[in-house]
């Protein structure tokens, strides 16, 4: 009886703690949402208040009128195309590193080199990336924001770990039946890694959608700006347009929230599948 009561108390305490932490994380977003409907005179009024006293949607109208959906289109192209290329490359690399680990002796060493690359801060590579983008003639092009970051060690690791949990005999049987390596990958291995594919798709889309540094370096024309760069443009030499920043920020996070809510049940499964060792 005492053990049962103790477990209930622990469960209640952990639930309360979890709700408290969740509240601390969600509260800034709630404040952001309500503040986006406040007139500029209320944003810094003292004392601060959560709910707007005179709600107004003028900031949203202004942001949309400034061509916000053009920035949405650019960000969608960057996120969708970049994610598709990332998933394909990661799946192929993960397949090769897992399936050929016993056939080719240095495969594990190649994977170790990939992992060592994660120790290098991304900021160190920005100058090299900008130089390559410029030499390829991709400056001020959305492709200059896509191609330098289509490979991700995280994605390769997830696919490799998942494929290592699949018996090698499955691929060997397909070879005996005359299947090519590409057909084995496309028809057998890729469908078996659907949970990893969905998880990596969500993460990659979020990374590309929220990318700031590379688009800031590569894009110069306003018509090519992504959402994050467009939000930064509301900070000018004459002041900061806080109302537009708040409204644009809310509009920029809505797609991510919707995607996460719809596909959240796949994230845990994909991460669990990628953590299985062969």
Compose a concise summary of this entry.
It is found in: Cell membrane. Helices cover 71% and strands 1% of the residues. It has 278 residues and is mainly α.
Please explain how this structure is put together.
This protein is mostly helical and 278 residues long. The chain folds into 2 domains: 1-55; 59-275, MetI-like (MetI-like fold, Orthogonal Bundle). 71% of the residues lie in helices and 1% in strands. It has helices spanning 2-35, 40-43, 58-65, 68-99, 107-117, 126-135, 143-146, 153-164, 168-176, 181-192, 194-209, 213-218, 227-232, 242-274; strands at residues 235-236, 239-240. The longest helix is centred in the first third of the chain and has 34 residues, at 2-35.
CATH topology of the largest domain: MetI-like fold
Strand/helix succession: HHHHHHHHHHHHHEEH
Strand content: under 5%
Q: What is the typical, i.e. mean, pLDDT?
A: 83
Class computed from helices, strands and strand pairing: mainly alpha
Helix segment tally: 14
Q: What would CATH call the architecture of the largest domain?
A: Orthogonal Bundle
Radius of gyration: 24 Å
The CATH H-level superfamily of the largest domain is: MetI-like
Number of strands: 2
